[in-house]
Amino acid sequence: MQESLKRSRPNESESQGASSTQSSVLNNAELSENSSRPIGRRGAKYQARQAEIDTSIAKSLSSAAKTSAKLAVIAEKKIVALENLAESQRVAMNTHIMCTNVEVLDEVAREYFMLQKRRILRDLRQQEQEIELAQAVTMGMDPELSSLNDEDADAPSAALEEELEGL
Q1: DSSP notation for the chain
Q2: CB under 8 Å to 117, separation ≥6 — which residues?
Q3: What's the confidence (pLDDT) of residue 137?
Q4: Which CA distances in Å does 143 have to 124, 151, 155?
Q5: In whole angstroms, how far apart are CA 72 and each of 65, 66, 77, 79?
Q6: Mind listing the pLDDT tens digit for each residue in 148-161?
Q7: What contacts 24+ positions apart, CB below 8 Å, involve 104-112?
Q8: What whole-number distance in Å separates Cα of residue 159 and Cα of residue 123?
Q9: Angle at 86 between CA 81 and CA 88, to 5 degrees
Q10: How far apart are CA 88 and CA 103, in angstroms?
Q11: N or C: which end of the chain has fewer CB within 10 A?
C-alpha cells in the first residue's frame, strides 16, 4: 500500500530536477558568454530564441516609429489644409461683405456692413504694412523711406474710405 502511495505522488526530487534543468539552461547561457566551454543544444536553442525575440522587438519598434512619423506628416498636412480652408472662407466672406450693396438695406444692416467694410479695409492696410516692413528688412532698406514712397499709393484707398464714411 505504501508503494502505491509513492507511485501516485510525484517524487520531490523529480520536480526539483525539472526546475534545475530550466535554471541550468540559463546558467549555461550565462556561462557560454563568460567561458570557452561549449554551450550545448539547449543553450544554443535558448540563445537562438532570444535572438529571434530581440529581432522581433526591434522590427516592431521600427515599425511603430515609422507609423508614428507617417501619422505626424498626415496630421501636419491636415492642419495646413484646414488653415487654407479657413483662409479661403475668410476671403470669401470679406469679398461678399465688400460687394454688398448697402443702399438697399435697412438702417441696422447698413450700419453693420459699413462697420465690417471699415474693419476689412483696416485689416488689409495692416497686412500691407507688415508685408512692406518685411520686404524692407529683407532688402536692407530703411522702413521709413519705403513708407514715404508708398504714401501716394494709399490715396485711392483713402478716397474709398471717405466714400464709405459718407454713406
Answers
A1: -HHHHHHHSPPHHHHHHHHHHHHHHHHHHHHHHHSSS--HHHHHHHHHHHHHHHHHHHHHHHHHHHHHHHHHHHHHHHHHHHHHHHHHHHHHHHHHHHH--GGGS-HHHHHHHHHHHHHHHHHHHHHHHHHHHHHHHHHT--HHHHHHHHTGGGHHHHHHHHHHHH-
A2: 97, 98, 164
A3: 87
A4: 18, 12, 19
A5: 11, 10, 9, 11
A6: 555 555 555 666 66
A7: 110/167
A8: 17
A9: 95
A10: 27
A11: N
Mean pLDDT of 13-35: 51
Contact assessment for residue 161 and residue 121, using Cβ atoms and an 8 Å cutoff: yes
C-beta neighbour count of 141 within 10 angstroms: 13
Q: With the C-alpha atoms ordered 134, 138, 142, 148, is the resulting torsion angle positive or negative?
A: negative
Q: pLDDT tens, 51-88?
A: 999 999 999 999 999 999 999 999 999 999 999 999 99
